[in-house]
Amino acid sequence: MHEVWGSNPVLAMRRALVIVDAQHDFIDGADDTIEQGTHGAEIHPRVADALVKVRDTPVYHVHKGCDALVDSYSGFADNAYTKFTDLPRLLYEARVDTVVICGLATDYCVRATAIDATRFGFATEVVTGAIRGVDTTTTKKALADMAAAGCKLV
Questions:
Q1: Listing from the earlier edge strand, what are the strands of the sheet with 98-104?
Q2: Which one of 3.40.50.850, 3.10.150.10, 3.30.420.40, 1.20.1270.10 gives the CATH number of domain 9-21+64-153?
Q3: Which of 4, 24, 56, 114 gives the lowest tally of CB atoms within 10 Å of its CB?
């Protein structure tokens, strides 16, 4: 059920920006894996600085990939769907209906997060100019997979 404010349905939309894997090592290209608790796992300062400039907008940091035995590409859940992050709860509590996704890497974590967003009932937009993949072939497939799942590529 969506709550409508006034007569303008556009005002009823609640959007959230989801930035996937904005850590030092991914952005700087130092590594394709992140070790928890290291400098490389910290949010990149350019991203942190940009988030500080967003006034009157809540910013949440959701941790994923905390179990060394189970891969966790999605910002919503691990790959086995046995453990879930706080992201779905935070979005539902904020009455978000649309998520806008950007980040790294298109063919792994962005793909998984975007597809899961649609599975969790969110309209999903992926900003193609603000994502980057690991490999050209798998990135093309990831874009096709996201579109087929109902994500809007913008």
A1: 15-20, 98-104, 123-132, 152-153
A2: 3.40.50.850
A3: 56
Bridge partners (DSSP) of residue 131 are 103
pTM for this model (two decimals)? 0.79
Question: Closest by alpha carbon to 21, among 13, 31, 9, 11?
Answer: 31
Helix, strand, coil % (nearest 5) of the chain?
35, 20, 45
Burial of 70 (0-12, 13-18, 19+ CB in 10 A): middle
